[in-house]
Design a protein that fits this description.
The chain is α/β, with parallel strands linked by helices and 422 residues long. It folds into two domains: 234 residues, Rossmann fold; 176 residues, Four-carbon acid sugar kinase, nucleotide binding domain (Molybdenum Cofactor Biosythetic Enzyme, Chain A, 3-Layer(aba) Sandwich), CATH 3.40.980.20. It has 14 helices and 18 strands. The strands form two sheets. The protein has a 15-stranded mixed sheet, with helices on both faces. A three-stranded antiparallel sheet has the order 6-7-8, with no helix packed on it. The protein starts with a strand and ends in a 6-residue tail after the last helix. The model has no long low-confidence stretch (mean pLDDT 93).
């Protein structure tokens, strides 16, 4: 098998977000959970290797990303795409900068671009500043992120702190003039010694103009938005066949570990709609209570009547209070393990359509379910598709699963998801 586009994503929801955009643009896509042991048997145009590397030590993130790169190169990938979050989640130490530099070194390329722009989800970049909706990133709630607080919206400044290479900007004026003007701007930046350039984009049209200018670039780094302009470089066009999945059946459930503002609204909407929901108490987990068993006993008699929700989602003040008592890393890991155990138990009870909210939560759940790869299907909301996987926890049966980034989706996402065929 030879693939056209080989992608490395720094978390599991981000991987499906990217795969979703590639599928919508006409690519047949498989997402793998971690680096596969050998070649895939499926005939696909792109592979997205999902890592859980966004918040680990930079050296570990680099090592995992390079392992993924070597596997993708062995499959003949013609271009490499490093995918990170549309909110540019990172710290002054990384991991966006260190991974980008390591991939550039391994590929022998002296220039690449970086932009988390995803206008469909209201993430835009203007004059190098990242906006979330109508406000700057650092005013959007992301400044309170428990693991990667984003307190600066200037992406040139943010990325420059993480990399030895000089960071520049391809601004909206060049982007608006089209692919040739973008190529000219790249040539000038390279002559000035710039190695990585943030790219402005405030609309899908900007991303589609950017696409052709990236056709010969060995490495692209971006959120998922840039993906809409790349399949055409390989002669592909949108097709419903690219997103076809086996028919869905079975019980339905949602598990949520994200504490983003968007997911908080989605939890409240689900509860307000009168559907059954159960909150997980981190302090009870810390006290040794078998919270997973309690949640499964609660869910078992309710599943036949429609979707249930189990969540640890809370507003930022409550999250900080728990972190203060248990420690940030311990609290997060403990809740992730519990929700993953609940997800596995729900599937054992017959759930075959499962929504998982939160990047770290999705990583834990996918691993607990014994999923090695997923076929990407139709979109529920921008950045969130239904996927189909053979899950060990389902006895090898097919499972439809949606991995939702915390910040994505409309307020009614948890109910709407089950009305979308997939």
């Amino acid at each position: 098998m030879t693939i056209l586009l080989g992608c490395i994503a720094d978390d599991f929801t981000g991987a499906t977000d990217l795969a979703n955009n590639l599928v919508r643009a006409g690519m047949r896509v498989v997402q793998t959970i971690g680096v596969p042991a050998g070649p895939l048997s499926a005939e696909v145009d792109a592979v997205v290797v999902a890592l859980k590397s966004r918040t680990i030590a930079p050296a570990d993130a680099v090592a995992q990303s390079l392992e993924a790169l070597r596997w993708l190169q062995a499959q003949g990938a013609r271009q490499i795409y490093f995918k990170y979050c549309s909110t540019f989640d990172s710290t002054p130490e990384g991991n966006i900068g260190p991974v980008t530099e390591a991939l550039m070194d391994a590929l022998g390329c002296d220039f690449t671009i970086a932009t988390p722009a995803f206008p469909d989800n209201k993430r835009t970049v203007f004059k190098g500043y990242l906006f979330a909706g109508e406000v700057l990133l650092n005013e959007s709630g992301m400044q309170n992120h428990p693991l990667t607080p984003m307190t600066d919206a200037n992406l040139v400044r943010v990325l420059q702190a993480q990399t030895r290479r000089k960071v520049g900007l391809i601004d909206h004026v060049a982007v608006a003039r089209g692919a040739e003007a973008i190529r000219e701007r790249i040539a000038r930046l390279r002559a000035e010694g710039v190695g990585i350039a943030i790219v402005d984009a405030v609309s899908n049209d900007d991303l589609l103009r950017l696409g052709p200018a990236l056709a010969d670039m060995p490495l692209v780094t971006a959120g998922s938005g840039v993906a809409i302009g790349l399949p055409a470089n390989f002669g592909l066009a949108p097709s419903s066949a690219a997103s076809a999945l086996p028919a869905a059946a079975g019980l339905q459930a949602v598990v949520s570990g994200s504490c983003s503002l968007a997911t908080n609204r989605q939890v409240q909407h689900f509860i307000a709609s009168g559907r059954p929901a159960l909150a997980i108490d981190p302090l009870a987990i810390a006290a040794g209570v078998d919270v997973a068993a309690q949640a499964l006993a609660w869910a078992a008699p309710l599943l036949a009547s429609g979707p249930v929700l189990v969540y640890s989602t809370a507003e930022s003040g409550a999250v900080k209070s728990v972190q203060g008592r248990l420690g940030t890393e311990q609290a997060g890991a403990m809740v992730e393990r519990t929700i993953a155990a609940i997800a596995r138990g729900l599937v054992a009870l017959g759930v075959r359509r499962l929504v998982v909210a939160g990047g770290e939560t999705s990583g834990a759940c996918v691993q607990a379910l014994g999923i090695a790869q997923m076929q990407i299907g139709p979109q529920i909301d921008p950045g969130v598709p239904w996927c189909h996987a053979l899950a060990e926890a389902a006895g090898g049966e097919g499972l439809h699963i949606a991995l939702k980034s915390g910040n994505f989706g409309t307020d009614d996402f948890f109910t709407k998801a089950f009305t979308v065929p997939g």
